[in-house]
Design a protein that fits this description.
Blueprint: H1 4-14, H2 22-42, H3 46-58, E1 61-66, E2 71-73, H4 75-86, H5 103-117, H6 121-142, H7 145-150, H8 154-157, H9 159-171, H10 175-185, H11 195-198, H12 202-221, H13 238-242, H14 249-252, H15 276-289, E3 296-303, H16 305-310, H17 321-325, H18 328-337, H19 343-351, H20 357-363, E4 366-370, H21 372-377, E5 383-390, E6 395-401, H22 412-427, H23 429-440
Parallel strand pairs: 3-4
Antiparallel strand pairs: 1-2, 3-5, 5-6
Length: about 450
């Protein structure tokens, strides 16, 4: 076995807890905790409730927890609901260079499978590390061409393979069977980014489709159903199908020696990650220059080419939540005139019909332009310039990297504070603390079933 698909399968099937560097374990635990908090917050949203209702109607009983339902079902269906919640409000993790969202697919898939099969905490940590690493490496191989040239969405296209790899490890599949599971997962890779052009809620579902598809692939493979074992690198495989330009070597280079998941980022704001660096630059101007909405004559955002396409097409006047969270102009106007970019701020924007006059007055004065420095840094670095021309005639400018990215990381205390805020707002501080303790206990063998035991309503 010497193909990229086979190499990933051999790596994942043979990995043991003691093979994981301590920094990888710490990273996996923090991103798992972050994702569970995001799932809890996302479980309160209307579109998540629709998916949860569908999953509960269709699912057979099982051991996998459906967050905010008080019910346990078969893993595929729990993962569909929980992953949709985890990707549902644009505050889940991402990897800048890979342009991927590992946590929202890997975490719900692995936890659901682990609950069903009674996995130990250490096995779950290994499976989570595998799932996240596979998603990141596929992103590094496919991006940015997959989004920029073809318009596919990374969350399901890449995520389904991470879900399958992680669950395969929990199922104890050998390398050949795991490669077959990856082959089956490839037929579940899907999703376009048309939502970034015209809105709609489908983006929220892509993580659920990926997590569900990965678990389905494992269930079929372990029964002997076969998939193509060259699904990634083959002539009609994933790299060829989803990108005009790919880097196959990114899948296997340094495998076992380098962990690309260490480059993952945590989101502090509830919008597309491409908007975070401009938000941070604008926040600097507010803090350092006393900038206020009434001062603004024009705001120019210097950004990369993908930002122009991905968060610059909706325009300053979105009509739904996806549009608001993918509008550079509207989200920056919220930063300056709408209170911020947190969960409550976007919910308030929705309640106002995305028509708050103060926000729109600023949004209409914002434009994007290609900046050579920001474009050269992308995708490895999310960097942006914000230039503000004030009504009094002077101009102020700031550069910023996205907070939470490797260039401006959030520390463990900040990540845990984010979890407590999101989770505590849904289940209360005491239950949130119990969830945090259960995640922290995974490396010591704490059972996977303890993680979501306090995350039901």
């Amino acid at each position: 076995m010497n193909s990229a698909t086979a190499a990933l399968a051999e790596f994942a099937s043979g990995l043991r807890f003691q093979d994981l560097p301590s920094e990888v374990v710490e990273k996996v635990l923090l991103h798992t905790l972050d994702q569970v908090g995001v799932e809890l917050a996302g479980s309160t949203l209307p579109f998540t409730a629709l998916v949860r209702e569908y999953a509960l109607e269709e699912a057979a009983p099982g051991m996998a927890t459906v967050i905010s339902s008080g019910r346990s079902v078969r893993p595929e269906w729990a993962a569909l609901s929980n992953a949709t919640a985890g990707h549902g409000f644009e505050i889940d993790d991402y990897h800048p260079g890979a342009l991927s969202h590992p946590g929202c697919v890997a975490v719900p898939a692995v936890i659901a499978a682990g609950e069903e099969w009674g996995a130990t905490g250490r096995d779950a940590v290994v499976a989570l590390a595998i799932g996240m690493e596979v998603i990141v490496r596929l992103g590094l191989a496919l991006q940015p061409s997959m989004i920029y040239d073809r318009g596919f969405h990374e969350t399901c296209v890449e995520g389904v393979f991470g879900a399958a790899a992680g669950a395969s490890r929990l199922a104890g599949l050998d390398a050949a069977t795991m490669a077959s599971a990856l082959g089956l997962a490839g037929s579940h890779a899907s999703g376009t980014t048309e939502y970034s052009q015209s809105g709609g809620e489908v983006k929220r579902l892509h993580a659920g489709i990926g997590a569900m598809g990965g678990l389905r692939a494992v269930s079929l493979a372990r029964r002997g159903f076969e998939g193509p074992r060259t699904i990634l690198e083959g002539r009609r495989g994933t790299l060829q199908a989803f990108a005009e330009k790919s880097r196959p070597e990114a899948i296997t280079d340094g495998l076992r020696e380098r962990w690309d998941l260490l480059g993952m980022a945590i989101k502090p704001y509830c919008c597309c990650g491409l908007i975070h660096a401009p938000i941070d630059a604008l926040r600097q101007l507010v803090q350092e220059e006393g900038l206020a909405a009434a001062d603004v004559e024009e705001i120019v955002v210097g950004c990369d080419r993908l930002s122009q396409v991905h968060v610059g097409q909706i325009g300053p006047r979105p009509t739904d939540m996806t549009g608001a969270q993918f509008s550079m102009e509207f989200s920056l106007a919220m930063t300056l005139a709408g209170g911020g970019n947190d969960l409550v701020d976007y919910q308030a924007a929705a309640d106002a019909g995305y028509a708050d006059p103060a926000v729109l007055a600023v949004a209409d004065r914002i434009r994007l332009e290609l900046d050579p420095r920001a474009d050269a840094a992308f995708p490895d670095h999310f960097l942006a310039r914000v230039t503000v021309r004030r009504r009094r005639g002077d101009t102020v400018e700031r550069w910023a990297y996205a907070t939470g990215s490797p260039d401006a990381p959030m520390d463990s205390a900040a990540i845990r504070a984010k979890f407590r805020r999101l989770a505590g707002g849904v289940v209360g501080a005491e239950r949130a603390a119990a969830i945090e303790s259960a995640v922290d206990a995974l490396p010591e063998g704490g059972p996977v079933r303890s993680v979501l035991a306090r995350a039901v309503q």
